[in-house]
Amino acid sequence: MDVSTLQVFAIVVAGLVTLAAVALFARTIVGFVAKFRLGRPEERTDEPGTRTLTLLREFLGHTRMARKPLVAVAHWGVMLGFLLLTTTLATAYGQLFDPSFALPLIGHWPPYIWLAELFGWFTILGIVALIVVRQRQHPRSLERRSRFWGSTFWQAYVVEFVILGVGLCIVALRGLEYALGRATGASWADLVHFPTTGWLGRFFEGMSVQALESTIVAVALLKILISMGWMITVAVTPTMGVAWHRFLAFVNIWFKRHADGRTSLGELQPIAVNGRPVDFEDIEELDEDAALGVGKVEDFTWKGLLDFSTCTECGRCQEQCPAWHTDKPLSPKMLVVNLRNHHHAKAPWLLADSEHRDAAMKAFEALGDGERPEQLHGIPTTAVAEAARPLVGETVGDPTVPDGGGVIDPEVLWSCTTCGACVEQCPVDIEHVDSIVDMRRYQNLIESAFPNELGGLFKNLENKGNPWGMNARLRMDWAKDLPFEVPMAGADVEDLSAVDYLFWVGCAGAFEDRAKKTTRAVAELLHTAGVSFAVLGDGETCTGDPARRAGNEFLFQMLAMQNVEVLKEVNATKIVVTCAHCFNTIKNEYPQVGGQFEVVHHTQLLNRLVREKRLTPVSRPDQADTAGVASTASSVTYHDPCYLGRHNQVYAPPRELLGALPGVEMREMPRHGEKSFCCGAGGARMWMEEKLGTRINLNRTEEALATGADRIAIGCPFCRVMLSDGLTQKQSEGAREEVEVVDVAQMLLAAVRRAEEPGTEEPVAEEPAADAPADTQAPGDGAPVAEQAQAEDDALQEGVAPTQDEAVEATDGPESAVERPSDSSPTADTDGTPER
User: Fold this and answer.
1) How many CB atoms neighbour CB 807 within 10 A?
2) Residue 589 per-residue DSSP state
3) How far, in Å, CA of 280 to CA of 286, rounded?
4) What's the rounded Cα separation, in Å, for the pair 702 and 775?
């Protein structure tokens, strides 16, 4: 075989570039491992088989990408093309030596050829689609509303150019191979072997064999140079997440928190030292240098550091973040990017020995604002400067993309509502909420640096056992004048095995006037259905959710252990709660302190009771008895509480309940289900003022009002407070007065009651700025909900609620027997809930 000058040149150039690329790439991989090992230890290797299946499911099924179908299909083609078409790169190397080269065994095997051509075209079309998506959503037109705001565009353009260039080279080489085969009379030069590229070969007909061979060598060299140039670029840019996620995503998904693939939401992870949860009863035995939370980037676990480098800057988290949507400085994407860049920039200093680190830092401090050398005691000066930055502190310039000062601005850190939208949307399973809360823990426990409003919250929780600082003796005021007894555990019921459920009322359900309506409605419905229950009364204290989300892990542990002890003393096994935050904490976090209970949300239990026909909705809105806390209307929209929906995947039960109400039309908001928009109360934000941007609750209230529904149904007292306050403000600006924020249980209660046998309970006293009047109704027919948000994952969710026709036709539904109370003493906190 004669080797032309062009081939010699191509072989030499390709060989040198490939050697450089492989060497640099290998060096960067070794560097990654060393940098990730700087993080604290964490065990993530349980159930390796299950983890592998989860990885394959997410990788091949693109389950996390499917929320954007067009992008998912395009990305799936590009991703598989990147992996499968590595064989075409091997072919290109062979073609430098012999333009007619084909891989042994499979080179002319039709199934392989068909697959290669399919994904060659798929790669081109897919990347073109993704380029169009990026340009249509470019910040130059959408500004902050673009999910790509803040992303590093030159890196994205490099990746797009490489993929498009490689894809074009692949199909061009296929066409040239067909033309060369036809010119040489090869038996494989037919449409069976070139089903989608043979037509391209016809453009090269008339060229000599030598010209075709030279063109193949040139295009093969171009393909190799594009591929190796990309490898060199990413090797020297370890912070190029848009490229590195191609490799790191596999690792990050395999090591995700839950081996079975569940989203890393629900329970927060306990504070750990040396990979083991801290026992707060033995806190004095901890080393004085032990980090409680994250105060430096190396305090993150190795998984947290891996998270940061895996970020592809796609902006899906940013697109869903309630803080970002209301013009706060927090962008989950930019928070991760800033931490990633800081980690890589500081790494050389961290990897040096302590002697050199100390000497370099002293030399750096002595420099002041003077000229800085490239290195200080063998450490890059930029790394020493990065080590001098506080992880959380006042920043210079835009706090979202700081020019200096702290890495994460306090306003960024405390803007988070821990709603979990970022984690839910992330296609590579980054655990943003854990990182944010870990930084809050350090600020709280070590630095005592937290928003002023939280000081009062912590004091009330510690001294009074509730966020409002109310006297525990008032916890049973919600039950005054009910026509049935509400037994208390320990007083009326010694052992909770004697009743069906412990009804966990919660602080809001006991003290907040609007939430009391939900408590009374649920109690009446359970009584009507014949479900026996008891409450803890003044033996109940806050679950500790706001303390934990605010970073005060000590206070959470104290409250949690106290509650678990009480629950065990009364032999509680089955608990029903009305607060989504209590639901999440008792169900998912109390097992961390020894409390294992079967916990259901009231919408789940009530939905089951309706399915079992122990509760039968029979009254249409224009026939319903809305005395007392009951409320209904002909149309309703449902707001998904973050800690019920995203954190615990409970989407269907509330909708099934609303769908079972006769004459009530369900109107979904554009953002619902897993894409539901936060009310703004989570992450202890309920007790902090919104001083930046616009109000999250107003944003959500405006969306609810836009549906035209007469009722905004909720399943969480936090959501009720936020949306009620938002509605009050919007009504003062001219919104419809007949709209009211109610709990799902209140609407069910109105439907269960008989209009011809009305209840006789008087309305509970309301705060002036609470819900709209309960007696306002919009009569008319409506269809039940036809669409459910998604299949219910919770084991307690089974079956379907009765249809509207079944409910209307029922003749033996339970009747209400509620008497009027003689009075209703308001028990709202004297300090008041912060104005929203």
Assistant:
1) 25
2) I
3) 10
4) 23
pLDDT digits (tens, 9 = 90+) for 764-818: 433 333 333 333 333 333 333 333 333 443 434 433 344 434 433 333 333 333 2
| CA angle in degrees (0–180, nearest 5) for 643-644-649 | 110
- CA dist 351 and 811 (Å) reads 76
Asked if 685 contacts 411 with a C-beta cutoff of 8 angstroms, the reply is no
CB 616 within 8 A of CB 814: yes
The whole-number pLDDT of residue 2 equals 65
Interval 588-601: pLDDT, tens: 999 999 999 999 99
Instruction: Give pTM, 2 decimals.
Output: 0.86
Q: Which helix (H) or strand (E) holds 227?
A: helix 209-235
Three-state helix/strand/coil letters over 319-345: HHCHHHHCCCCCCHHHHHHHHHHHHHH
Neighbours of 204 (CB within 10 A): 20
Q: Hey, how many other C-beta atoms are within 10 angstroms of the C-beta on 12?
A: 11
Pairing assessment for the beta strands 598-601 and 574-577 based on DSSP bridges: parallel
Q: Which amino acid is at 207?
A: M
Task: Identify the burial level of 439 via C-beta atoms within 10 angstroms of its C-beta, where 0-12 means exposed, 13-18 middle and 19 or more buried.
Answer: buried
- Helix (H) / strand (E) containing 534: strand 533-534
**What tens digit of pLDDT does each residue of 217-228 get?**
999 999 999 999
The CA-atom distances, in angstroms, between 308 and each of 248, 332, 418, 432, 651 are 10, 11, 18, 9, 30
Contacts of 368 (CB under 8 A, 6+ apart): none
H or E stretch covering 712: strand 711-714
Alpha helices in 326-470 (DSSP H): 332-351, 354-367, 381-387, 410-413, 421-425, 432-445, 452-464
Helix (H) or strand (E) holding 741: strand 740-743
Residue 107 binned pLDDT confidence (cut-offs 50, 70, 90): confident
Q: Which two tokens stand for residue 717?
A: 């007292």
* Chain position carrying tokens 């005592």: 448
CA angle 581, 583, 588 (to 5 degrees): 100
Give the SS3 label for residue 493. strand
Spatial distance between the Cα atoms of 784 and 805, rounded to a whole number of angstroms: 10
